[in-house]
Design brief:
Elements (H helix, E strand, L loop, with lengths): L3 H10 L7 E4 L22 E3 L6 E5 L2 E4 L1 E3 L4 E5 L4 E4 L12 E3 L14 E4 L2 H6 L7 H4 L6 E3 L8 E2 L6 E3 L2 E4 L2 E3 L2 H8 L2 H6 E2 L3 E3 L19 H5 L24 E8 L5 H13 L8 E13 L3 E14 L5 H21 L1 E8 L6 H28 L45 H4 L16 E4 L2 E5 L9 E3 L1
Parallel strand pairs: 1-10, 2-5, 2-8, 3-6, 4-7, 10-13, 11-15, 12-16
Antiparallel strand pairs: 1-9, 13-14, 17-19, 17-20, 18-19, 21-22, 22-23
């Protein structure tokens, strides 16, 4: 358990810069059994083979007996003090029958593969195996980081990228630290430098460390596609996975976004979280990455208009994200209680197990609808002013002509009296008029005064109302 004075001392010493140590994991050491196709270091009865067409730089730490050895056309053996090779006059009793073993190809090991680097806050943490978790972009050396290649080790790394140079703060090779650009450039031109570094991009040193106590942006966003091409993303088991800034894959966990002032110190905050929470038993399986990122900003959640620096804390637990969510809530409580003393103005939480707030979605939809309406109004106004002309409508396909309807004039009655000279068509037999003898004799029913023709038509007298002399025009 660290004493409070020790914690305060750590806080005072840390935070001046945000540079980390990034160590290259693979090596081309003779004693590393993973470098051999048989999975074991060759012994006295084995025949050792190096590909003749491959360049290689092999570090040999001790002496080794071999039956025979085939060397490459272009390569080097870096021998440690007392190291070398010899051939036994007889059989090596502990070696077995002997096999032909081949040194594996190291040409495909790429600088921008996040899986090939380890990160630590200090050299002691690097040696003790206290490594930091980072998003994919920041797993690769950033422009303010110190790059470490193991002391008793050699390597071969492909530095190809879309950029001509890869700036870092320093590079340490075989225990020698290069922080001068001219000195390291001279080393890259040497035989060892050409065997160890190859590719289209040149690593350059002498880049300043991070002068901002609030942290510095890594600078590897320009290599995002190159970095992610080396990553294979697995399927997410959570309901709503998250995509942290600078990461290639969706993850299950939580993201805490910290808003800060000039008094904020990133390294102090990192150490505070480490000692307050990550040291607790319930959080020992947590992976936590903390860094400054440029988060894209969007007007009303739709239109991009730049980016703003924020502190992104990515929390992963390797499961559904529930444990990460609990830690994020604990961090938020600590920020609410002590944030003003740490230079923090506020914090937001995103979790993989909860749905996103619908507020932003609704606002975005409303804004989008308003934008569409505005565009329609502008287009209509331009058309009315003649600035924009609508394209002519294509002619409609010809339709078959409909049969002509009979004129309604045929159904009109002709009011000309001269038409009455012909026979009148009554339409159907009316017994009252056509066969008056079928009805009882009623005086004056069919007299000449009952029916009359005038200029306006034919009239008859209704016997039920003849007293009122009501006429009906036919």
């Amino acid at each position: 358990m660290l004493k409070m004075s020790q914690v305060l001392l750590i806080f005072c010493l840390a935070g001046a810069t945000d540079a980390l140590y990034k160590q290259w994991i693979p090596d081309t050491n003779y004693e590393n059994k993973t470098n051999w196709d048989k999975g074991d270091v060759p012994c006295g009865n084995d025949r050792v083979h190096f590909s003749s067409q491959r360049k290689v730089s092999v570090f040999v730490e001790t002496s080794h007996a071999v039956q025979e050895m085939t060397l490459p056309m272009d390569g080097e053996m870096i021998l440690n003090s007392g190291a070398g090779f010899y051939v036994l006059s007889g059989q090596d009793p502990g070696c077995g029958a002997g096999v032909r073993t081949k040194f594996k190809d190291s040409e495909s090991l790429r600088w921008f593969n996040p899986a090939l680097w380890q990160a630590a806050a200090t050299l002691n943490d690097l040696q003790d195996g206290h490594f930091l978790f980072s998003v994919h972009e920041e797993s690769v050396p950033c422009q303010q980081d110190d790059v470490i290649f193991k002391v008793l080790s050699s390597f071969r790394v492909d530095t190809s990228s879309s950029q001509t140079t890869i700036p870092v703060k320093s590079v340490s090779v075989l225990g020698k630290v290069f922080d001068s650009r001219s000195e390291f450039s001279e080393y890259l031109g040497s035989g060892s430098g050409q065997f160890q570094f190859h590719g289209s991009s040149a690593v350059t040193v002498g880049n300043p460390g991070c002068p901002d106590p609030t942290g510095c942006v890594c600078g590897n966003s320009v290599h995002h596609e190159h970095i992610c091409s080396a990553i294979t993303c697995g399927s997410s088991s959570c309901k709503k996975p998250l995509r942290p800034v600078g990461h290639c894959c969706e993850v299950c966990g939580a993201i805490v976004t910290v808003h800060y002032t000039d008094g904020f110190k990133l390294q102090n905050f990192r150490e505070r979280i480490r000692h307050l929470f990550l040291s607790l038993p319930q959080y020992e399986s947590i992976q936590l990455g903390m860094s400054k990122v440029l988060k894209p900003q969007r007007l009303m959640g739709i239109i991009p208009f730049g980016s703003s620096p924020e502190i992104q804390v990515v929390i992963l637990d390797g499961e559904t994200g529930k444990l990460s969510q609990a830690l994020a809530q604990d961090m938020l409580k600590d920020i609410k209680s002590h944030g003003s003393k740490l230079g923090i103005t506020g914090a937001d939480i995103q979790t993989a197990s909860e749905p996103e707030s619908s507020v932003g979605t609704v606002v975005g939809a409303v804004f989008g609808a308003l934008l569409v309406i505005t565009l329609i109004v502008i287009v209509v106004a331009l058309i009315r002013k003649g600035v924009v002309q609508m394209p002519p409508m294509p002619p409609m396909p010809s339709m078959p002509s409909l049969p002509s309807m009979p004129s309604l004039s045929l159904f009109r009655r002709n009011t000309n009296v001269s038409d009455l000279n012909g026979a009148t068509d009554h339409g159907f037999d009316n017994p009252i008029f056509d066969k008056p003898d079928m009805l009882p004799d009623m005086p004056n029913l069919y007299g000449t005064d009952s029916i009359s023709m005038t200029q306006t038509g034919v009239h008859f007298v209704n016997p039920a109302y003849d007293e009122n002399e009501i006429d009906f025009t036919v």
